[in-house]
Amino acid sequence: MHDELTKVDIKKMQEEIDYREGVLRPKLLAEVQRTREFGDLSENAEYKEAKREKNHNESRIRYLKNMILTAKVIKVENKSDAVCLFDTVDIYIEEDDETVSRKLVTTLRQDALKGLLSKESPLGKALLGKKVGDRICVKVNDSYSYYVVIKNITKGSDDENIPISSY
C-alpha cells in the first residue's frame, strides 16, 4: 500500500531530510567521535547515547526517503458542499452529547491533541464526501460504532503550517 501524500507533505519531508543530512548528521557524528574518546566503550554512557541519537537520525532519514519513494501524490479537491481533505468540520457526537471541531489532514500530519484528524481514521473515512446535516455511523471495529451529525463545514486548503508528525 502506498501512502497518499500531497505535494506539501513531500516538500516538508524533503526539508526535514535536508536538515537531518546537512545539519544534524555532522553534529551527531562529531558527538559520537567526541564521546568515543572518553575511554572504555562498554561503560561509556555518553557514547552509547550519542550512538543512539545518531542511529535515530539515520532511521528517520531512511523512513522519510522511503515514504517519498513509495508515495502516491494526491491532488486536493475541494467540492463546494462536501467534506474534503483539509476542511474543518464541526460534528455533533450523539453518544457524548457534544459538538467538536476537527480538521481532516493526511495521515502524515495527524495530531489528535490539536484536532487534526487523519483521513484514514474511522471518523475521517466516514466524514469524507459527506455534507452538512448528514448523520453518519462511524464504525470503529466489529463491536463498536457511534453516530455523528455534520453541523458545519469550513473549507480549507493544504496549509504548509501544519507540521508532519515525528516518530
- Computed structural class: alpha/beta
Beta-strand residue percentage: 15-25%
| Overall 3D shape | elongated
Secondary structure: helix percent: 25-40%
The major beta sheet can be summarized as: 5 strands, mixed
Query: How many angstroms separate the termini?
Result: 20 Å
Determine the number of helices (DSSP H or I, runs of at least 4 residues).
Answer: 3
Q: Mean pLDDT score, rounded?
A: 90
Strand order of the main beta sheet, please?
A: 5-4-3-7-6
Order of helices and strands: EHHEEEEHEE
Number of strands: 7
| Poorly predicted ranges | none
Radius of gyration: 21 Å
Kindly describe this structure.
There is one protein chain. The chain has 167 residues and is an alpha/beta fold. It is built from three helices and seven strands; from the N terminus they run E-H-H-E-E-E-E-H-E-E. A five-stranded mixed sheet has the order 5-4-3-7-6. A two-stranded parallel ribbon has the order 1-2. A hairpin with a 4-residue loop joins strand 3 (88-93) and strand 4. The longest helix has 30 residues, at 7-36. The radius of gyration is 21 Å and the shape is elongated.
